[in-house]
Amino acid sequence: MRPIRIAALGGSLRAGSVSTAALRTCAARARRAGAEVTLLCGPELALPPYDPEAGVRSAAELRLLAALRAADGVLLASPTYHGGMSGLLKNALDHTEALAKDTPGYLDGRAVGCLTVAWNEVAGASALASLRASAQALRGWAVPMGVVVSAATEFTAADTCADPRAARRLDILTDQVLDFARMRRSCEAAAVPVGSGVGAAL
C-alpha cells in the first residue's frame, strides 16, 4: 500500500513566518510517520485572483490542484489578518473550485487540519473558525483539533516547536489528520464508503 499523502498549504509571504514554521513542524512529523508531504507555502501559493471565467490555469494553480487531488489529508496554516485567514490562502482555496467536478468533488473524504497564528488569541480563534468553515464548505472533514499558535512562539531550524504546549497541540493535529486518512484508506481497501455505518464505527 502506498504511503499516506498530505498536502500542506501555508498562507504567508512573510520571511520567517511563524505560521510557515508551524506548518513545517507538522509536515516533519507527518514525514516521520511515513507520509509523503507536498508543502506549498508563500510564493508557491501566489496565484492570480480567482476568476471563474479564466480559461488558462497558471503553473502554480496546476501544482496546487495536483497536490490536492493526490492527497489523503490536508494541512492548512495561516497568519491571522484582521480576524480572518490571509487573502493568499483564501484565494488558493477559491481556486479549488476547479475540483468541483472531480469524483469525489472538492476535498470530499479528506481529513483537514487547520492552524492559525496570532498575537491575539480571540482574533486567532476567529481566523481558525473561518479556516475550518472553508474546509468544511469544500466537503473536507475538519479534524477535532484546531490550533491557535502565539505569534511569539519560536521554532528551530530542525522544524521543532520550542513551546511544549504548542508542540503537543501541533502533534495532536497532525496525528488526527494522519489517523483519519489511514481509516479512509482502510475503508477504501475494504470497499466500505466513508461515512457509512461501518466507516462511522471506525
From TrEMBL:
- Kindly give the Pfam families that the UniProt entry links to this protein: FMN_red
The NADPH-dependent FMN reductase-like domain is annotated at 5-150
List the InterPro entries. Answer: Flavoprotein-like_sf, FMN_Rdtase-like_dom, NAD(P)H-dep_reductase
**Name under which the protein is recorded:** NAD(P)H-dependent oxidoreductase
The organism of origin for this protein: Streptomyces albidocamelliae
The record lists the lineage as: Bacteria, Bacillati, Actinomycetota, Actinomycetes, Kitasatosporales
